[in-house]
Design brief:
It is a single chain. The chain has about 160 residues and is an alpha+beta fold. It is built from 6 helices and 4 strands, in the order αααββααββα. The chain has a 4-stranded antiparallel sheet. Helix 1 packs antiparallel against helix 2.
Length: about 160
């Protein structure tokens, strides 16, 4: 009979070795060490038996996370592009997006995210209308945000 390591059932030997290791904690060093070594060797063999499956599982898991991150980035980009300036005065801007109306679950996250910016006093999303109101202090905004404010003003002026 040929010993095929790939098909060797290791479930029971691993169980016996693990129970034996724990059970011999008080029985003596040599017996405990013997069960511990057996458990370690059987664990390595078991890992070797399934290394291809584990490698495939890791690839699936990391691939899945990357796909989710890309989907979030795409959704965020789509949301930003969908905004239209509804009203603007310095220190206050109201944006509208149909995506806010169909995704009310984004409300808390987006409000907290927008409020985290320096100079933003408040951000309120009304999912019913797809409206986002941002109240901010223009003096405290970083230079990049000041440029955004100028663009908003230009967009509103072009609309009139």
């Amino acid at each position: 009979m040929q010993c095929d390591m790939k098909n060797l059932p290791l479930g029971w030997p691993l169980t016996v070795a693990s129970v034996g290791t724990v059970a011999t904690l008080w029985a003596g060093k040599n017996l405990h060490a013997g069960f511990g070594v057996a458990w370690a060797v059987l664990s390595v063999l078991h890992g070797w038996q399934h290394h291809k499956k584990m490698k495939a599982d890791v690839k699936k898991l990391t691939g899945c996370c990357k796909k989710q991150e890309e989907a979030v980035k795409d959704t965020f980009a789509e949301l930003v592009e969908s905004f239209q300036v509804d009203a603007y005065v310095p220190g206050r801007v109201r944006l509208r997006s149909s995506l806010l109306a169909v995704n009310p679950q984004w409300k808390a996250f987006l409000e907290d995210y927008i409020k985290s910016f320096t100079g933003v006093k408040d951000a309120v999303i009304t999912p019913l209308t797809g409206s986002l109101l941002i109240i901010y202090d223009g003096e405290k905004l970083k230079p990049k945000m000041a440029v955004l404010e100028q663009r908003l003003a230009a967009q509103v002026a072009n609309r009139r």
